């Protein structure tokens, strides 16, 4: 008797893109063809690979006879379209055309999903086809499926994660070697972690796109890139990193999505990406190099942590292939994956409503009464002080200039709006020379 894989006609897979990720998807589809056919119940046949330049050199794992520069024609003859080309166009138009033509689609394109995911989700819903995107958030780490499916019976309160490998590598290098940001970014580029233009990573756009996708899934609410309050790592100095270490913290670029209920503060969803001090005892502090990790707090499940490689060809291709298998199984057995769920329609809270603890570092004149003036300014804005330190030496090494003292103030949780107003008021005080840095403290 023929196995299910032998009796079902092959499923045609079109691959859009053959770069870092696409090359590995093509390799795995070929090398693991037999296993995949058994898991799906039908062979997966790679029918074409769309690229910009079909004559360019390719990895030996890529069958050059499959290369085409006509992506539009390719999507017309596929059951499953895998988009790993990146960018907004032509990726969006090609995926929409594939969906209209009845193909299931799999994409790793977080930028497109964070900008215009709903257009794709609606089209897939109308056409009754699957859209999967596990690889779009944190590469190999299964996080989309757990949040979208495994936690569908729970109520997620908070998602807190390191979702950008490049910036985690840069901050980790700064902490372990004392190097400055520019030097660490150059090293990340030399090692192939950071792209030639690292803007999307260091300015937090990549993490913000991932935060928007996770927040949408976690809170059943449409969250787009524009809803995410974003701050990158460009302002982080070697001195900040040294000070963080002295106070038992590391600096991480965090993506945070939280649901706030209407008890006192405004109800809704707050989504933000920014550098933050994380206590060295927190599990996220030990996420080193280019690794990613995501913490999820749900009401019944409690705390969950997902950890692994957030980027790279083979790790990302693993997530893509998992989605291809899910979509392919539906083609063979019937059924459909989950649709976009936005029933909760929670309001998106402004950045100013985010509530967190802060560490403020400032240089002041070293004379009686100065600390009292600073404390008074904080109290006037309703910001409560948790601790004040007046170190004798700077975290970076050298002793402060004579007559000038460095103050390190840690606050209790305060709304961002109150903190900003406080910092502005403190900066105006006559004995305050400069506010050296203002960093949020998370995970305490
Ligand atoms: P690459 O730049 O390495 O590869 C892009 C591929 O798409 C290339 O093969 C390129 O063709 C092709 N391509 C680009 N534009 C077109 C076009 N207009 N028409 C036809 N082909 C086109 O990208 P990555 O593999 O790094 O990333 C792909 C996607 O995966 C992106 O959305 C990215 O955000 C996402 N992703 C990437 C991760 C990673 O670690 N790299 C991790 C997680 C997600 P050609 O080769 O001829 O230039
Ligand atoms: N540039 C991204 C990172 C790749 O550094 O994490 C994965 O999305």
Question: Could you characterize what this model shows?
Answer:
- By secondary structure, the protein is an alpha/beta fold.
- 36% of the residues lie in helices and 25% in strands.
- It has 15 helices and 17 strands.
- The protein has helices at 4-7, 20-31, 33-40, 71-75, 91-100, 110-127, 144-150, 165-177, 181-190, 199-202, 205-219, 238-246, 313-333, 370-380, 416-428; strands spanning 11-16, 44-50, 67-68, 80-83, 104-107, 131-132, 156-162, 229-230, 249-260, 268-279, 291-298, 302-309, 355-365, 385-389, 404-411, 414-415, 432-441.
- The strands form two sheets. Strands 7, 8, 9, 10, 11, 12, 13, 14, 15, 16 and 17 form an eleven-stranded mixed sheet that branches.
- Helix 2 packs across helix 13 (313-333) and helix 6 runs parallel beside helix 11 (205-219).
- The mean pLDDT is 94.
- Residues 17-22, 50-53, 56, 71, 84-86, 90, 108-110, 135, 139, 311-312, 316 line the site of NADPH dihydro-nicotinamide-adenine-dinucleotide phosphate.
Contiguous uncertain segments of 5+ residues = none
Distance between the termini: 60 Å
**What small molecules are bound in this structure?**
NADPH dihydro-nicotinamide-adenine-dinucleotide phosphate, L-homoserine
Could you say which structural class the secondary elements and strand pairing correspond to?
A: alpha/beta
Portion in beta strands: 15-25%
What's the mean pLDDT score?
94
Q: Which value, in Å, is the CA radius of gyration?
A: 25 Å
Count of alpha/pi helices: 15
Note the main sheet.
Answer: 11 strands, mixed
- Please give the number of β-strands: 17
Q: Give the helix level as a range of percent.
A: 25-40%
Described by the principal axes of the CA atoms, the overall outline is elongated
């Amino acid at each position: 008797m023929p196995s299910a894989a032998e009796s079902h006609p092959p499923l045609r897979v079109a691959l859009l893109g053959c770069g870092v990720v696409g090359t590995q998807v093509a390799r795995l589809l070929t090398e693991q063809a037999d296993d995949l056919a058994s898991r799906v119940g039908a062979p997966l046949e790679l029918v074409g690979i769309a690229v910009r330049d079909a004559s360019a050199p390719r990895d030996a794992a890529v069958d050059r006879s499959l290369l085409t520069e006509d992506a539009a024609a390719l999507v017309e003859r596929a059951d499953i379209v895998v988009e790993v080309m990146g960018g907004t166009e032509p990726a969006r138009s090609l995926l929409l055309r594939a969906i209209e033509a009845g193909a299931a689609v799999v994409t790793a394109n977080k930028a497109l999903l964070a900008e215009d995911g709903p257009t794709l989700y609606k089209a897939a819903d109308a056409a009754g086809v699957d859209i999967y995107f596990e690889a779009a958030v944190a590469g190999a780490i299964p996080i989309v499926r757990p949040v979208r499916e495994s936690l569908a019976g729970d109520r997620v309160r908070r998602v807190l994660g390191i979702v950008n490998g490049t910036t985690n590598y840069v901050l980790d290098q700064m902490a372990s070697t004392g190097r400055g940001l520019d030097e660490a970014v150059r090293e990340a580029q030399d090692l192939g972690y950071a792209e030639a233009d690292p803007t999307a990573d260091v300015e937090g756009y990549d993490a913000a796109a991932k935060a928007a996708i996770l927040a949408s899934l976690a809170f059943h609410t449409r969250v787009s890139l524009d809803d995410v309050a974003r701050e990158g790592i460009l302002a982080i100095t070697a001195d900040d990193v040294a000070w963080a270490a002295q106070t038992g913290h590391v600096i991480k670029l965090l993506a945070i999505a939280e649901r706030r209920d209407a008890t006192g503060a405004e109800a809704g969803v707050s989504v933000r990406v920014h550098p933050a001090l994380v206590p060295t005892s927190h599990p996220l502090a030990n996420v080193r190099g280019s690794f990613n990790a995501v913490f999820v707090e749900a009401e019944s499940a409690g705390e969950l942590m997902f950890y692994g490689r957030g980027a790279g060809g083979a790790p990302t291709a693993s997530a893509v292939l998992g989605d291809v298998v899910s979509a392919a199984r539906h083609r063979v057995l019937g059924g459909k994956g989950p649709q976009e769920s936005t029933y909760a329609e929670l309001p998106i809270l402004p950045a100013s409503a985010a509530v967190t603890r802060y560490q403020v570092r400032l240089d002041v004149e070293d004379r009686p009464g100065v600390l009292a003036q600073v404390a008074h300014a904080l109290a006037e804005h309703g910001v409560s002080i948790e601790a004040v330190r007046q170190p004798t030496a700077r975290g970076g090494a050298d002793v402060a200039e004579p007559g000038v003292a460095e103050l390190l103030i840690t606050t209790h949780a305060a709304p961002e709006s109150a903190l900003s107003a406080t910092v502005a008021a403190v900066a105006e005080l006559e004995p305050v020379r400069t506010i050296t840095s203002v960093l949020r403290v998370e995970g305490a």
